[in-house]
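Let's practice the habit of predicting before peeking. Look at the sequence and jot down your guess about where helices and strands might fall. Then scroll down.
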Amino acid sequence: MLSVTLDPSGTFLTLESTAGPQRFHAIWLRDNAQDAETRAPGNGQRLIALRDIPADTRIAAAEIAPDGALQVRFMPEDKTVRFDPAWLAAHAYDHAAPTARGWLPDGIQAWDAGLMAAVPCGDFAQLQQGGAPLRDWLGQIVRFGFAKVVNAPVEPGALFRIVDLFGFVRETNYGRHFEVRTEVNPTNLAFTGLGLQAHTDNPYRDPVPTIQVLYCLESSAAGGENMVVDGFAAALRLREENPEEFDLLADHCARFEYAGEAGVCLTSRRPMIELAPDGELTGIRFNNRSCAAITEVPFDKMEAYYAAYRRLGEIIDDTAMELTFRLEPGEAFVVDNTRVLHARKGYSGEGTRWLQGCYADKDGLRSAHDAMCREGVLEAAE
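Done guessing? Here is the structure:
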């Protein structure tokens, strides 16, 4: 049963349901009206600006209509708007603010080496068909920050077909894609046989490429196994061990730089642990190769900052935090580059190891996933 109570001031109402009471302000409700004069029926975008809504908007009356909708009359416009209670419940904001810095929203799951028993993975042929397999694979990337692809074609440029599943390639100074194999006089250590510490790519960019795809074409060299580490899990472990060290890495900017080729000097100034204003853990930037001189930390905190930086690196290097797998030709993995660090073990000069990589953007991936989820909900409701 639904019921509604209007505050005598008219500035807010309280909607009572089996889930408990939820308060909504008059100005918020008016701004979120779904009527055809306020929102375009086709795409849901607002047709008015906030300046078009009277600053002294109040609720004159509110009731539950016979069909279960919440009906609200606003003054001074004398405008009546209907609201879906289910929509209001999904967008309710009358709840306690998070108190812990570094909280994760619903749908995001931190992980460690225990995920090795169930590595997120999708079969390329099934993914190309769309539908539930693609939706679920994209959902795994949203939840865990990475997923593998298997049984894809072994041909140069096939990595673009993976990006086509959810978005568009982001071109950089490395080109539309880049080759990962041993080179003479490489412009980047990624193009050698050296082992690499787990890292996020391109922290020297603003914004960073938020999705990375690495696609295997040849893999006969000894070694070279790929590793991934959940940067969110590493940051939360640091917070649990030492909240002060977590705060140091979240409250002060590091500097990152890349100037390894002619005409390129990329720099950024961002914290290694990025938080939203309300404390949500939103990003990790960690790359020992690209970290420039850190100058944003006060003198009296620099030693403690370096201790925190060292400890985060030790946590990232802990084998209990990593998943390790070998990519075979026709296999790839996709990572959320704002969260999941990737690495590889060193490999010998015997045999070959050839991967191609490219970047894309997380908004496209999330858009594809969310659109498929909404379409599924609508189909189930019909």
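How did you do? Residues 3-90 form a domain with the NE0471 N-terminal domain-like fold (CATH 3.30.2020.30).
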